[in-house]
Amino acid sequence: LSSRIARPICPSRPACVCAVHICEAMCRSVVEDMCDNEDTDDFAAAAAAAAEASATSRQRRVQLVITPIGPWLPLKRLQAYHSSILIDDFEYSFGICCIVVAQGAQSHEYFPRSPAETQIVDMGTTQRSAKEMYKKLRPYFRKNSYDLLRKNCNSFSDCVLCYLSNARLPKEYRTLERMGKSADKRSGFVRAISWGQYMPNPQADSFLAKSVRSSLLASPSK
Hints:
Blueprint: H1 15-34, H2 41-53, E1 60-69, E2 80-87, E3 90-95, E4 98-103, E5 119-126, H3 130-137, H4 153-165, H5 175-187, H6 189-193, H7 209-217
Antiparallel strand pairs: 1-2, 1-5, 2-3, 3-4
C-alpha cells in the first residue's frame, strides 16, 4: 500500500467503513507480530523497569506518537489513528497482547503510512516514572481486553497522558472511536457495516475511560 491512498480499498463500501475494517485488521496484525516473543505482562513489566533504569534525571520527556491508518480520507474527523507514548525514547502502546514496551516508536513501523505521515508531538515532562505508570495502568489494560472502539491504543495513550502530566489525547485523534462507539451502542451499526469484522470484546465491557482517568489523577506520585 502507498502512504497516501486516494480512494477506498473496498470500492463497494464507504470510506469510513473501510477505515473500521482495515483498522481492525492492521491492529491485529501489528500487535500479533510484536507479541510473537513477548506476549506476557511479565515481559512488559521487565521492559518498563529496564527503561526506567536508563533514565538519568528525575524529569522525563513525554511524547505522543500518531500515525494515520487505513485509507486517506478528505475529512480528518473520519480518519483512524494509531497512537503510542514515548517516555525518554521508550515506547508504550496497547494492543491485543496487553501493554507493549519497545525502544523507539516500533509499533508504528508496521503501518503503510509510516514514517511519512507519523507525527511525534512533545507533551512536556513528567516527574512520574515509567515503572509507576505501568504499575498503575496495568490493571486496566490486561491481556485480551483490547476492543477496537471501546478500549484501544488511543484509550491507553489518553490514560497515560492523564497520569503522567494531567493532559489528554487531542480530540481529533479520538473522533472515529467516539462516533463508532456511539453508533454501535445504539444499533450495532459498526458491526453491520463492517460485515461482522468488528465484534465487541466482553472483556472491555467494564472499561470506563472517565472513571479510569479519575482514579489515575487521584494516584499520588511516589
